[in-house]
Amino acid sequence: MDYKAEKITPYNSSESKTGQVRQMFDSIAPAYDFMNRAMTMGIDKWWRRKAVKMVRRYQPRLILDVATGTGDFAIQLYRSLRPAGGVTGIDLSRQMLDKAVEKVADAHIADAFVFKEGDCMALDFADGSFDAVTVAFGVRNFEHLEQGYAEMLRVLRPGGVLCVLELSTPTNPVIKSLYNLYTRTLIPLVGRMISHDHRAYSYLPESIAAVPQGAEMTGIMSRVGFRNCRFSRMTFGTCTIYMAEK
Question: Structure pTM?
Fold first, then answer.
């Protein structure tokens, strides 16, 4: 099945969505962390803490963080859960991964991490390799949603958990109108000024609006084989945590 989010791309080029997403994140890597804090006014840190608490009850020993970016979620997972096997983070963007490597080195916890370039459409891991798979703010960038979910299911062991943290659109009409003004006007303007990428922060609200949300997203998870799929909305619906099991 095709989804609208798969057709939304950062740049109007003939390159695949995967290639364009890689190019975009390489471009904005130097400004990425600053823009995350500024756009969410720091609330993204609370969202991650909430997601970590949901993963905690599964007591994972080996964690795969897909679309790990600059490593914020991977680092928070490790510091809170201390998984015996550490955390592996994959990302399309080498520039983003370089930032993640710097962070864990500066924090003197590099031995607990493996960061490598990888595509969620074809994960380079054996079946049943991990107790938990996590994705923070990355699912809307998948070129093929069902294929990405199927791959994450494949590398999970039976009983393992998937945790997806993704931006979403508020349902309250008043909040939604303010949210649209903020994400479609202010964020692209500041993004262009800070990152010097004229499309990246226009792509952001477009991709959020297009990505499946709520029950539609858990329906995709169920179709590829996950069970006990559920979701929790946060901060007026601007972010949603999705949980599922193998």
Answer: 0.94
